[in-house]
Sequence to fold (1166 residues):
Amino acid sequence: MTITRSLVPIAGLATGLFAGWVVFPTVLYTTVDQPVQFNHAAHTGNGAGMSCQDCHALGQDGRFAGIPGIHQCAECHEEPIGSSENERRFVEEYVQQNREVPWLVYARQPDNAYFPHVVHVHKAKLACETCHGKHGSSSGLRPYEMNRISGYSRDIWGSSIAGIKSQAWDGMKMDDCISCHSVHNNDRACIDCHK
Amino acid sequence: MRTVTTARSRYGMVIDLDRCTGCGSCTVACSVENNIPPGTENVTERTGITWMRVYEADDGKSFPDTHSVFVPIMCQQCGNETPCMSVCPQNAVEVDPATGIVGQIPERCLGCRYCMAACPYHARYFNWWDPKWPAGMEAAMNPDVAPRMRGVVEKCNFCQSRLHTARERAASTGRTAIDPADYVPACVEACPQRAITFGDLDDSDSFVAALAAGDRAFRFLSRIGTEPKVWYLSSREWVRNLSDRVVARTRKENVRG
Amino acid sequence: MQVTRRGLLKFAGASAAGILFSPLPWKLLDDIAIWTQTGPWIPKVPRGPLTTAFSTCALCPGGCAVEARCAGGIPYAMRAAVRHTAGRGALCPVGMTGHHLAYHPLRLSGASVIRRTSDQVETDSLSTQEAFDRILGALNTRPLATGVAVIDQRPGRTLSGQFRAFLAQQSPGYYIVPDDDRLRMHEAFSNACGKDGLSLGFDIERTATLLTIGTPVFDGWTRPARTAALLDRRHDARNPLKLIHADPRRTRTSVLADQWLPIAPGSETALVLGLTNIVMRDHPSLAARYVADLHTSDRRGMLDVLSLFTPGIVAKRTGIPVDTLEKVGSALAHRKPSMVIAGGDAAGPIDRDTHQAVAALNILLGSYGTPGGLLHRDELPMPATKMAAISTIGDVPDGSISLLIIDGEEMTCSTCWESIESKLSPDGHLVVSTSPFLTQLSAHADIVLPSPAPYETAAEVVGDPTDTVVSLSISTPLLPRKQGSVEPIELLNHLSGESVAMQELLKQRIALVHARGRGMIAGYQDGSGHRLSEFASADEIWSAFIEGAVWTSPPLHETPAHSYTLLGHSPNIVDRWAARAEGEPNGNGADGQVILLPTASSDAASCGRISPLMTKIYQESEVRPTRAHLVLHPDTGRRCGVDDGDQAVVQTESGSRHVTIRFSASLMPGVAQLSIGPDPNVSGKKSEFAGSDVFRNTLSRSPMAGVTAIVRRA
Fold:
């Protein structure tokens, strides 16, 4: 009986820990599939041999173009290349109808965050992989894990629910920006990164 | 290793009151640029948000001897003991050491409006409502500026998003300093009379520094020592004497004195 | 195991402690913080590639060059195309928000039937085809002896020519243009010169002495680039400008002019004739030089009537001291070139007799046909077809219109509903509006066929009518055209059984310009000028226009006539002028009586609706008065028993309005100023379409004469 009685708080503690560490992350995030699949690896490196900048260009005025528009895809994909179902659907539903793909962007930050790619790429000489990891060599788009409360991707918080960073590119919260900037740029103000 | 990567400057503005026609283009351009929503149905001059606002001031004489002047007033970007910054309990106001711009951080603001009471120029505005545009008009929002939420204070920040753009331009060509022509706030660009000049007050070669040093230049409430970075020009003495008057947001305590 | 209360509490407490040692509370706080700042109720900024595009502002005929900044192809901000010579980098606040109008809350989404109940204006949608059929039905089955009329609020366009060609086929067909100051000025000059079809522009860029009679020079009268130059010219070392503004109203123009002549309400004719008297008296050589062959009887009539307008009498009538009048007269005669401009106010035109007096003074001053004065414009060519004559609403017999098409928005108050109503046939009529929005005028129509909003279609911009330089440009579409909007040419096609495309018609006109070979084409991108011979065809010019360009042609060098009739050809003008020497009763605030003067911003009034964002300079600041603010002198106010900030009612013989009192010591005692609109803050209530309420039927008088009104506390 005493053992059972002292088990109650331990069971409670275990339940709480279980709820916080295991149940909560699964409940907090919902997975959404991308509208169509995209194979980065097939386009880069040994595939089509393109570099990141070929599609995700920095404009003349230094503005980052983000995800290319459908017209840029159409330059090669006016007709389906290969016979995959995904490719056929992509060409029929988006390219031929000149409709933009509503991609779910893993790296999307809230509107009030300002991130100039050009400064980080040209001045700080950061490689794309530093922040985006191996995304450029992935062979498919993993499901988008959407935070049910804030609506943003799990990638922003990082894969660990505890916020423990395993890789430089794992998690892009303000603290992650600061941790780098506190080393490389001490002349910072709120307005530098907020709009 | 700590490195300073930003060139230091002290941005300021000079407004020629002898050229201002009070047309309101600056006010409207500012609102378009900074995603300030249209007023609600019963909006008044007390509840509205006008970062850049044109007042009509006069010499106090009665008809037909009245002389009037139009005075655009926005955040005067105080450089000394910045009143709003000193009173903010949330550290939501910050003077950027690199540019001198007094920045407002809506995410930190708790909406106590102490800063509004402290501001001698009444240049701060409170979001009484969440921003709302007529259906579909969100498509005409400026992508470079985030809208603010209900319950926070906001004000002019010298179009910091345009500073961002200018810095991106500089970075793309490998320059460390921005090209002054790339950083022009919306009101300066919009003024049909070219009454507003903007630039680095610390750059002795800049037009704005030369104007601010001229005989016609004055600053509002210079006696309280807040060292604003916005200067005004007029060749009329009574207009320059306005600098000692209290600028207030309601008509009853108006600049008319 | 027995479940006890104590056990449960222990379990709950321990799980709470467990949760505290998990990321749940901290992560939840973080996410909720983000949610409160970026929740779905806060609009998200648009995404997409950022581009710029050039176009021409078509909100008023001025046609300023604009550079639109676009995100994902949708414009989000407008700025003046800086390098463009005609725009010279200036936009008015209305033009700066022109891209907002497509989203205006009172925009009509498609063909609509207007239903007016006692307190509401409602719209029922119907298909475009149904609307066409009903209009065609009204055309074919109209009562005997009734006619078809088109009110064209922006004459001179290619579409205007199409309207006139269509109306020439109808019997009777009335082509009606706004009865504005420009029309009246031309009438007066035509009378004085005995020449018809004049087209004059004001060469304000070179004037040394400019007397404006109520002209709202700094309130949107012309392109801001032209008035910006005016202020510069005051400090010009060689030929500085002196701007004298005569107006009983305290406006921005009164404030900014070098000299404000606060004339008594309704005394503008006396002022002009008094100044003419001074000029003729002190400078007989002027009369001799410019009016060499003045007809004897004409001369006597002129001198007779001028003898009634001695400086003393005029000073009494206008309230302007004699020595000020003498100085102004002397400045007009000596500081050449000098010019007098009358009217141009959105609050309504100045009466014809005053225009005749202004024409006479301008001829005496030698400003007609000389640089710095009134110059002949090189008019745009129009395809030669049989066209209906140009008339005004006053020329149309009462009760004679059974089908009325109103094209465009309210340009001026000279085409307000009150003046139209009596012209409609009592045996049945159909009023069609092409306005994209519900406005004061379109709310009175039976059917609205909404034309595309600004920047949704390639609109023709025929240029500022007050300018000496004639221009033509195309407002490049920047927005996708809304489904349900109807180009007015489609209606015309349906009525006339033809099928012409607007773009082809525009190209035909461009071909005429091209064939004539006069003028230059300036691109907005770099401001470079090109001769017309550099373009192989009209199609090439069209392409240039679509990329952003304007055709301009300088004024013509026509020798002024040698024979003038200063009295015009109006038989009784001498008597009517003479009657103006006597004063009208003036409001003095006793018994709450004031002279109520309408004010309006000409730029804003020209497009019917303005961006909802314009509350920034109406309700949210004091830049422009709203319809709900009555401005008066503190002394006048106190005599009326009202104080600053009070709620009050202003009542005239035609109606009343609730207002908030605003005191300003700079106003003339005895008068009160009230804006006729527009108002950006709309909710769609019927009161917003009520029209001119307190000013009804009084706008046919000069806006500077005002109306008698009673002000009392609400």
